[in-house]
Design goal:
alpha+beta, seven-stranded mixed sheet, GNAT_dom
């Protein structure tokens, strides 16, 4: 029997108004345990609006992760501009629904998002800031060639400090 991990295919699709339901499905205690927990309705709707508008503003891209061939939405991924240590870089982040975790979906989607950011040729570096307590996201960074820079503190959610690992990917490298 073939290993299902290698048979899976994903596609990333630009975030759209219709993806609000997916955002609700991602807004759970289990999904956000490393990010301060679920957001309020007001914050969730504001996040959705930012996701819909980010590409038009030219400050990044957000995508839904779609499992093929079923076309089922199973997560999200994106990258956005942030100021980090005196320069503007892309930050990336992702989430895959619990039933689909551990199958390589986030890694495949992140590789596609990295390719999108590279094609823009806008910023040299992309950073990921997974919690020090999130081994799965840290492993994805390693698999995709991010360089571990250091442990750091990030304010997230606003008003809270989160201990993270700073991973950096050189988008200009081949």
């Amino acid at each position: 029997m073939p290993d299902e991990t290698y048979a899976l295919q994903v596609r990333i699709e630009p975030w759209a108004e219709a993806d609000l339901d997916l955002l609700y499905r991602l807004n759970t205690r289990e999904m956000l345990e490393h990010l301060g927990g679920p957001e309020t309705e007001e914050r969730l709707l504001a996040r959705h609006k930012r996701y819909v508008e980010i590409e038009r503003k030219g400050t990044g891209r957000m995508f839904g992760i779609v499992l093929l061939p079923s076309h089922e939405a199973v997560g999200n991924i994106g990258y956005w501009e942030r100021s980090w240590q005196g320069e503007t870089v892309y930050e990336t982040g992702w989430g895959v629904l619990p039933a689909y975790q551990g199958k390589g979906i986030a890694t495949m989607a992140a590789a596609a998002a990295i390719a999108s950011a590279k094609a823009e040729r806008k910023h040299r570096y992309m950073h990921a800031f997974p919690s020090v307590d999130n081994p799965a996201s840290n492993a994805i960074c390693r698999k995709l060639g991010f360089l571990f820079v250091a442990e750091c503190s990030i304010e997230y959610p606003p008003g809270s400090t989160m201990r993270c690992n700073d991973w950096r990917l050189d988008l200009d490298a081949s």
